[in-house]
């Protein structure tokens, strides 16, 4: 993407995305034109279940990315917001300096602590339709305390990845947003920390939990040190961000109740908008709060494009796309899990990828993988409808898989509804939108920040073409004991 540094009327909004591999800063105007962008890499320590990064590296990379993004702007940034990876957490002192390691979103050392947190707060999690996982910041906080990160007599402060950077922009610790707080145990329906659960876990007296605000709330303004470090003007409003996943949904333009965003990269993530939280008795779906008080239910599947790169490393995928167009449906049925275990739309830790039948050739195998992901996507949408959600067309497609026009069309055909692909998407754009909303712009005023690139309608000739494969996949998942019978019945009738 090339920034448009020409003169332009109106304000510019800055979004900063703290990713796993790097930090990206994007300056965008209300018409969706990129006015400046910057990036800087990040590294960490991975060793088995351990995954840590240095918070100082987040700030150093953010400084570099922001300074690059704002260097040639025609106007000052009007507001800035930051997003981070969900579940990444550390402890700081009262001045915001780290006193523990920063455990990344996929650090897996807190499995035992997750089980204890789930058991201790079972009644609350059941009411919320949530299940504590080892990736949750709440489980990691228990692990940190047990490892001695909170000595007796000292109450370090809970800090999420985005909080660390916004604190440096402002010049001191800030409130956290409800998006990052969710996996730290925050009761999004009661709008409060569950003190009784935290007390039973021994965390309430050992840790200081931050104030929680809605994404889009103004946290403060860029201070003198933050301005000098980043090139932002002192006094620039700093707006509460959200998780990278919720930010990516904002970037998709799926903002109204009934709209859904399907993010297909290595794995598949489905996020939508509902007027009320969706209650999920299995706990595979969770509900974030949106900036305007609606809800953002979502779930992450373990199927995805990663199955293609594993099966066809270095292949000419456009050529395979062209060949696959003649195999609809494929001669075999594939359930393309990227790794062992499924997380959405059902929980099956022992689930494994499978193929029913023997592929005639590589084209058949490739076509089955493409179709298998789309069929799983259809099952995900059926599940949220089963829980009571509206699913209005078109579904917005984002993620690396949207580079394949054939796959976009195939997904529209399998889903039986139109799909839309934005011109650009990503978490940095999403928090730039959030910065504009937090600074007082209405939804209608910022709608132009998300531009439509293409739309794909289901082909009439493909109507019903994949119904048999979908029914067969549902049957196979139920027969293996992974897909609950009630969900299977609903999917067969309504999916």
Automatic annotation (TrEMBL):
Pfam family of the protein (one): FGGY_N
Keyword Kinase in record: yes
CDD domains per record: ASKHA_NBD_FGGY_SePSK_AtXK1-like (cd07783)
InterPro entries per the UniProt record, alphabetical: ATPase_NBD, Carb_kinase_FGGY, FGGY_C, FGGY_Carb_Kinase, FGGY_N
Family statement: Belongs to the FGGY kinase family.
Domain Carbohydrate kinase FGGY N-terminal, first and last residues per copy: 12-250
Gene Ontology MF, one: kinase activity
The protein's name: FGGY-family carbohydrate kinase
Domain Carbohydrate kinase FGGY C-terminal: residue ranges: 262-438
